[in-house]
């Protein structure tokens, strides 16, 4: 049996005190500690693996809005069509959150500004919906989608004759997106490779921005 | 006791998300006080309506509640004395055939314009239209009530009466 003498660093009766531990005990301690550490790491990895269950569905909610307006029913982005999504903003007005009412009224009164606004909004939904599904810049996508969801909630969240529908959509998607802003995404994500290559995020000047 | 960074961030996110959810619930539906779903029944506001002694009614009609995808359909417009007696009224057949030149929509959005569809005056959610109607009578100066009825038979929803007091001047 090999005996190790460990310097505990404290004085004992005027002389250095040594703790005597057998290698067996030491091995057990190290093993046990790494076991605890690896268990914690493993549970984090495991939790990460369940995130795509929600992430892809959440992203699809926004990306599919873009598909509906461009591929399924292009008339939705035609200002001269009855299907034009600009009309949706009009239906928001009666019970939208007060600070937004004036902006909605202004937008629907200015067709020349309403149209580029809708294009921009649709593009944002397409880009960040796709990013969320791919797990690319998940933290940034989470923030943008949370703002989109809650913005729609404050404007048209009062709509929904069946099950207070729009509020449920806005609240759940907003909370889910905000969660992804904090968790980021690794497994089944582009971010996994980005994080390996650039662990401290995007570096602009001297600031590291954790986009993934 | 100091909290680590992760705990602080997690609490912050939790408070923000839960706060927005509850705020949306209360502000959009008064869910914690008097639950109201404004999408169930059509409602109209007539603020700004004018009546003239020559019988012209400038009906200012703002659709303020009800489903976003359908209606509402106005089938009766009445001018009443303050005691509730009807002075003059336009029925569904008349309201279904108002010339489009007499319907002025505030917001020029296709698919969301007020119009006569042959059966009723249709006012989509959010639209605010001025509808000009002509009563073939002379109206004495005084105060009158202008009231509209939705096709569901009511002139009131969510405590909003689809009527307004107007004054006819000399």
Structure description:
- The complex is a heterodimer of chains A (212) and B (170).
- Chain A contains eight helices and four strands; from the N terminus they run ββααααααααββ.
- With 212 residues, chain A is mainly alpha-helical.
- Chain A has two domains: 1-50; 51-209, no CATH class.
- Chain A starts with a strand and ends with a strand.
- The model of chain A is unreliable at 1-18 (pLDDT under 50).
- Chain B is elongated and about 80 Å long.
- Chain B folds into two domains: 1-36; 43-168, Macroglobulin (MG2) domain (Immunoglobulin-like).
- The termini of chain B are far apart.
- Chain A binds chain B through residues 79-84, 86-88, 90-95, 97, 108-109, 111, 150, 153-154, 157-161, 164, 167, 170-171, 174-175, 178-179, 181-182, and chain B through 9-10, 13, 16-18, 20-21, 24-25, 27-29, 37-40, 62-65, 67-68, 106-112, 124-127.
Record the SSE blueprint.
The complex is a heterodimer of chains A (212) and B (170).
Chain A: E1 3-12, E2 15-22, H1 23-50, H2 52-72, H3 86-92, H4 98-109, H5 111-134, H6 138-156, H7 165-183, H8 190-197, E3 202-204, E4 207-209
Antiparallel strand pairs in A: 1-2, 3-4
Helix pairs in contact in A: 2-5, 3-4, 5-6, 6-7
Chain B: H1 5-29, E1 43-45, E2 50-51, E3 56-65, E4 73-80, E5 86-90, H2 92-95, E6 103-105, E7 115-116, E8 121-122, E9 128-134, E10 142-150, E11 156-157, E12 160-161, E13 163-168
Antiparallel strand pairs in B: 1-3, 2-3, 3-9, 4-5, 4-8, 4-10, 6-9, 7-8, 10-13, 11-12
């Amino acid at each position: 049996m090999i005996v190790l003498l460990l310097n505990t660093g404290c004085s004992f009766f005027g002389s250095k005190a040594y703790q005597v531990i057998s290698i067996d005990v030491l091995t057990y301690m190290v093993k046990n500690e790494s076991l605890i550490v690896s268990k914690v790491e493993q549970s984090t990895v495991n939790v990460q693996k369940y995130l795509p269950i929600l992430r892809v569905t959440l992203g699809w909610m926004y990306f599919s809005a873009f598909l509906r307006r461009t591929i399924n029913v292009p008339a939705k982005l035609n200002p001269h069509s009855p299907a034009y999504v600009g009309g949706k903003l009009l239906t928001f007005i009666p019970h939208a959150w007060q600070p937004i009412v004036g902006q909605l009224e202004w937008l629907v009164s200015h067709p020349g500004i309403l149209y580029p606004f809708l294009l921009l909004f649709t593009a944002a939904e397409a880009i960040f919906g796709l990013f969320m599904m791919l797990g690319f810049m998940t933290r940034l996508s989470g923030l943008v989608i949370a703002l989109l969801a809650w913005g729609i909630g404050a404007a048209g969240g009062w709509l929904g004759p069946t099950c207070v529908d729009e509020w449920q959509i806005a609240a759940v998607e907003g909370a889910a997106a905000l969660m992804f802003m904090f968790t980021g995404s690794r497994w089944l994500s582009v971010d996994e490779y980005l994080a390996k290559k650039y662990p401290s995020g995007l570096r602009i000047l001297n600031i590291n921005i954790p986009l993934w | 006791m100091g909290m680590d960074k992760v705990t602080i961030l997690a609490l912050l996110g939790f408070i923000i998300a839960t706060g927005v959810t509850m705020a949306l619930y209360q502000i959009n539906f008064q869910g914690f006080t008097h639950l109201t779903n404004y999408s169930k029944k059509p409602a109209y506001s007539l603020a700004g309506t004018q009546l003239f002694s020559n019988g012209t009614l400038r009906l200012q009609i703002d659709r303020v509640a009800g489903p976003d995808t359908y209606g509402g359909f106005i089938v009766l417009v009445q001018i009443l004395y303050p005691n509730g007696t009807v002075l003059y009224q336009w029925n569904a057949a008349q309201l279904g055939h108002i010339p489009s030149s007499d319907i002025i929509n505030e917001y020029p959005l296709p698919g969301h314009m007020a119009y006569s569809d042959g059966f009723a005056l249709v006012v989509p959610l959010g639209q605010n239209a001025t509808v000009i109607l002509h009563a073939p009578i002379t109206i004495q100066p005084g105060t009158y009530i202008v009231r509209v009825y939705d096709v569901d038979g009511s002139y009131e929803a969510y405590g909003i009466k689809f009527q307004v007091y107007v004054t006819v001047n000399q």
